[in-house]
Structures are given as C-alpha cells and as structure tokens.
Amino acid sequence: MSAAQEETISVPASYGQTSNTLAQYEQQYTRSIGSVAGTADRFWIEQASRLDWEQRPTRGDESSFDPVEIRWFADGVLNICHNAVDRHVAAGRGDDRAIVFEPDDPDGAVRRLTYRELQAEVVRCANTLKAMGVGRGDRVTIYLPMIVEGAIAMLACARIGAVHSVIFAGFSADAIAGRIADCASEYVICADEGRRGGRIVPLKANIDTALAKLAVKAVLVVRNTGAPVPMQEGRDHWYDEASRDVADTCPCEPMGAEDPLFILYTSGSTGKPKGVLHTTGGYAVWAETTFRAVFDYRPGELFWCTADIGWVTGHSYIVYGPLLAGASVLMFEGVPNFPDHSRFWQVIARHGVNIFYTAPTAIRALMREGTSYVEGHDLSSLRLLGSVGEPINPEAWQWYHEHVGASRIPVVDTWWQTETGGIMITTLPGAHGMKPGSAGKPFFGVVPQLVDNDGKVLDGVAEGLLCITQSWPGQARTIYGDHDRFVLTYFAHFKGKYFTGDGCRRDADDYYRITGRVDDVINVSGHRMGTAEVESALDSHHDVAEAAVVGFPHDIKGQGIYCFVTLNAGIEPTESLVAELKQQVRAQIGPIATPDHIQFAPALPKTRSGKIMRRILRKIAEHEFDALGDTSTLADASLIDGLIADRRNAG
Ligand code: WT7
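That is the input. Now the predicted structure with WT7 docked in place:
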C-alpha cells in the first residue's frame, strides 16, 4: 500500500451545508454505543421516534450474543409500509415523487409515482394478495425484474404482515425451488418476462420449472412484456385481472417490532443458501437512520442505488431506507453497458440524480472503457457518490471521484452485509475525510473489533478478523428455521461476538479497511457466492468425481470463479465437457455463478485425513506458485507440480 493511498482526502468546502459534522458524529457515536450507561437506549429510541408507532417502544436493546438472542424495541408496535408510504401522504407529502422508473430500453416509458400513487398501488396489491388468501406471517416469494411492481409487492406484503422472500431474477429454477421449499412459501409473485440489457429473461417459465415438483397455492403474474405464457388453471392469476375489482383501502396490520419482515437468502461457506431473517422495528430504524445520515439526504433530492431489489442493497437502499425517509428514488431496470457504456451517465443527466450509489465492479467495467463515455454528460446534479458490495481498489475509487464526481464531491465507501441489514462502516460526508479503499469509521451503534485466529483482541493499528461486539438495531435475528445454524455461523468462532467473515485492517486514524472474505465465500461482481454451492453443482454431473472451487483475482469482477475438477475414471476431458459443466452450474444456480475457468485435475490435493486443501488450490488459482505454504501434510505432494503446470497453461 503506497503512502498516497493512505492519504486522507478532505471533503471540499463546496460540498455545502451538511447535517454531519465531526463533533456531532463523535458525540452521537459515543451515545449510540452506550459508553455512558443508559445512553444507547435513549439514543436509539430517539432515532425510532422519527417513525410512527402504534405503540411507542419503551425499551431499546435487549440482545445477547451468548446465548444468542437479538431483540430491539420489543414492546413497540408499528407497520413499516405505513411508515414508508402512508405516513408521508398523511403529512401532506402525497404529491412528492416517490419512485422514478427508468426502463431498460432508453426509448421505453419512464414511469413516475408520487407517494399518493404509490399508496394506491400498494393498497391494490395488498388487497389482491389478501384475496388470494395471503395472511399475516405467510411467506410470499417475489421473483420480479427491476420494475416498480417489485417495490410495490414488497410493501404490500409488509402492509398485511406477510413475510417477503425476494429472489434475484438472475437465479435459476433450481435455486428458486430450493428457496421456496426452505421457507415453505405458498405464494409466488412473478412477471411473464423481464428485460435486462436488451435481453429477455423468462421469469414465468423459470417459476413453472421450479414449481414442477412443488405445490403452491397461488402464483400472481405481472404482465410486463406482454408475452404469452402458459397459465395453470386454479394456480396462476394475472395480476392486472386479479387486482381489477379489489377495494381501494387496506389497513396496515399492526406488527410487533420483532415480527418477521423478510427473509433473504444468501450464500455461506457451507451448504445451501441461508434464509437470513430480518424483523420489523429494528430494521426500519436502521434502514431509515443509515440512509439519512450516510447519504446526508436533503428534501427534494433524487437518490439512485443501482443494485437489484433481489439483494439486500436493493431492500435497504431502493425500497425501505429511502421511502422511510420520504426520499425520491430512481429505479433502473437495465445494466451499465446497454445500449452502451454511457448509460449510467445518461440516466443521471436525464433525471438530475443527486446521490448515486453503485458497486466497484460496475465502476471498474466502465473505467476500462475510458473516460469518453463519461465526458459530455451533464453530471452537475451529483452531490454525493457511494460504493458498496466489495472492496474498492484505490484506482477505481480515484477514477470515480475524479471522472464521475469531478473531484468536487465526496465518495462514501459503505461496508455492510445481508446480515447487518444496513450500512455499518463508512465515512459520513461532512464529518470525515476519505481514504480511497478504506470504508472508514463505524456507524452509530457499531462497535468493531479485530481479533486474530485464536480470538485474541488486537488493539491499535492491526490487521485481523472483523467482529462486532454488540448488537445494533438492523442485525439479522436468525436463519429462518435454523437458529442453531445462525449461532454456529456467526457466534461460534469467537464466543460473545458476531463474526463477519471478513478480514480487515485498522490504521492509526482508526479507519477500517476491509480486505475481503476469509472464509469459503467469494465475491463475484459484488455478488456473494459460496464455493460449496458451485462445487455441489459440479459434483452432481455424472462425469465428475470431485470438484474444488476457489476465487482468483479478476480485473472487473473483483473475484472470478476457478474450478478444479476431477473426472470419473475413463472420462476424457474435452472442450464440450467444459461447456457442459458451465451449463450445469448456470442451471443449478444462475448465470452469476458461471465458472470462469475449469481446470481438470487427475486428483485434488488432500491431507492424509482426506480433506481437500483449498488453501493450496487458492494459491495455484491466484498464480502464487511460490506461496503455497506448508505442503508437508499433503497425502500426495507430487500432484502439485502438474496442477501448477496446467494452471500456467490456462493463462
Ligand atoms: C460482503 C457482504 C453490503 C450489501 C451488499 C453485499 C463485502 C460489502 C463492502 C465494502 C469491502 C465489502 C464483504 C461483506 N462487502 N461491502 N464497502 N468494502 N467489502 O452484501 O452479499 O451480504 O455481502 O460483501 O466481504 O462481508 P452481501
């Protein structure tokens, strides 16, 4: 790391007035973590009081990490949909714009919804769900493209107390089936088809395949492209038809703060994806508070987060955070490179976006195309830039700051996870200087700690494993249906602490720099992928004896997927088998999991007790042939030279 990369860049004075100052941050942070007894609960109840509660919470944090039980605002009663929608209409902000929709096709129709219009749409959807039989606590699977109906469906579920489980529209039928079965979801909302980058995604067809062996009570189909799709009598209903005659009012169900709000599946280092469960009150307070403070949101501004609602970033910073704060949010159906590499900048100029929040992988991909695509677009409306999803390399940070932000506006690099519900480590614009590649400071209520492999706490300047020592309102409560796995995954490595799975460095200014995952999870284009899932997709091919999957550095994606595959005896490695295996992974997980490289190996390096030595395979995939470490425990060390030679040939 060169000195230049550690340099602090201050926020220019031209940034203007801000709600954040360093003194305020420090004072608030101290209160929020309860350094002075009793202040934390008061701080969080104050934050909570920006929301409407049918019954105000009198208690804040009642969580414990040993035994593991997370609980916030437990005696509070509220409805998050009321807070995100109706509250603003009731307060006379019904004509404020809520959602601006930019379609995949730049010549397609822009759709604008005020808060009042959003309310009407949400009520219509909620009543349609009720008519299908959906009630409080029922799990509703949402498999929609990036159209406003996605946000509407989520809010409609929340309104009637149903628990949504949104599945990213890029996941395959097998992945959908697993998620529907895991949470015993009996209702599905999908679209006929989706559009993305000029291509069609066959959403209803994927649902039909997923449901071939699963019974659900109803499938609600949004007419999006208008393509004819088969409808199963009694099960499938067109949304426009089913919603035609429903009532135009629908009360918001009063929910306990700890009632479930949503499940979101995410990959871990072992086994199938975990259904991370978030509840109502704490999540609402966390989404609202982080959105306001981190993006320093000012009334009337347009906020654009380029994530998909299928990921937690979309949940918290397209839907709940901005709408709870009464903000205007842009929803984009497309991708950064369609019709060409200037699409993001065109959209910013077209709608006058003020705050832009995207992922390093997108920045790197656009950076590679040169500055000509950025130049010539009026980006003067921008006031703040954000990054999320993976470590941002200083070069990409500089490019973003200079070419998109004209070196005149702050960049916030926000570290968080599906399990944290919202932003955890970031700088606050106005309060903190920025260090390219460094996420920055803990947000209110967040107490980070670095430990070594043995759990020894590392103080001061240090590099170690990132833990969080006390609960915060947005923390996931459990893994749906498997609290033991929740405890085992996050609280068993270091007793009494939440372990993030990330490595991290803390510098002399107490800035935190995330170095990446330290477990068998890889981050491909900001998407979290369990190597075990890819392995199991490969293993299920009849010609495969065994597979081991690791990440390797990739210029654009951050990490790519590298697979070592051993074939059954007598099977010849061929190009067509490579294609078949890639297809197998796409079919079982989805296109985002497509392997970048498949290397056939006569055998995989194992310990004498038969454990695959992934550490060594990782180094080979990374071309770090001199850093294999201790190979003395290998059962057959002679394998290694051949694996290295083949890796060299693969380029
Ligand atoms: C993992 C969580 C945060 C919502 C989207 C991803 C990595 C995320 C950053 C960042 C460095 C980051 C971590 C984390 N990550 N943001 N700003 N700097 N790393 O959520 O799919 O749950 O993935 O993404 O490794 O553990 P997720």
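Residues 115-132 form the longest helix (18 residues).
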